[in-house]
Design a protein that fits this description.
Blueprint (H helix, E strand, L loop, with lengths): L6 H24 L3 H31 L11 H18 L3 E9 L1 H8 L1 H18 L5 E7 L2 E6 L4 H16 L10 E9 L8 H17 L4 E6 L1
Parallel strand pairs: 4-5
Antiparallel strand pairs: 1-3, 1-4, 2-3
Helix pairs in contact: 1-2, 4-5, 5-6
């Protein structure tokens, strides 16, 4: 996970440091006996501990807000943030890139038959496959929700990209499910050979989504690539 300490957080720390300093001076100057002094000093330290525990907890929550709590994949917000940087690099350096949109075939049937808890375990296994297959710094991915996932990658070439699609397809097909149930995956992909400066990321997501539904119409459990 990533955490960024914002300027506002530094300001909060500075304000609390000032308050703590004032309290310490007050405790030392205006306290007439040692017992009262140590009581006030204890209160000051409680304030310090409370503040920094609260700040750490706030930062943890901020990090969790960027992840899907079930699979611990990045959510759409973090995905878009990460991909915008990769997208800019691809356009600036004229690198080929690809966007993948996929969802699971037969997942609803598994959910209805074995329950949502079992379905959640399948989603976690799919998430692990995504993490293990697309693990380079040039890759980004997320769970959109339900059984839909997005992947952005800057492959070395088209052949290598297609190889990764086949690995993704094969690994998801090989997930073991009770009672010999099978799960498939429909994958829509856009491969851009020479990105232009005026390209919009959202347009590629919509295109990949449409291609994924074309796969479903033609038999499911496969992939279709649009090359631009």
């Amino acid at each position: 996970m990533y955490f960024n300490i914002k300027l506002s957080e530094y300001r909060i720390i500075a304000e609390h440091f000032f308050l703590i300093t004032v309290l310490l001076i007050n405790a030392f100057v205006f306290t007439q006996n040692r017992i009262s002094f140590f009581i006030q000093l204890s209160v000051v330290f409680i304030i310090i501990i409370h503040h920094f525990i609260g700040l750490k907890f706030t930062k943890q929550l901020s990090g969790l807000a960027h992840y899907d709590m079930l699979t611990m994949l990045p959510n759409r917000y973090k995905f878009m943030y990460d991909v915008e940087k990769l997208f800019s690099v691809a356009k600036r350096e004229k690198l080929s890139f690809a966007l993948i949109f996929f969802d699971l075939d037969g997942f609803k049937n598994i959910n209805d038959t074995f329950g949502h808890k079992y379905g959640d375990e399948i989603l976690k296994k799919v998430a692990d496959i995504v993490k293990q297959t697309f693990l380079r710094s040039n890759d980004a991915y997320c769970r959109l929700g339900g059984d839909e996932f997005l992947i952005f990658t800057i492959p070395s070439n088209f052949e290598n990209f297609e190889k990764f699609l086949n690995i993704l397809l094969e690994k998801i097909n090989n997930i073991k499910i009770k009672d010999n149930f099978k799960i498939g995956v429909s994958i829509g992909a856009v491969y851009v050979r020479e990105p232009a400066k005026n390209l919009k990321l959202e347009n590629f997501i919509k295109t990949a989504d449409k291609i994924m539904y074309e796969v479903k119409k033609t038999g499911k459990n496969g992939y279709l690539i649009k090359i631009i």
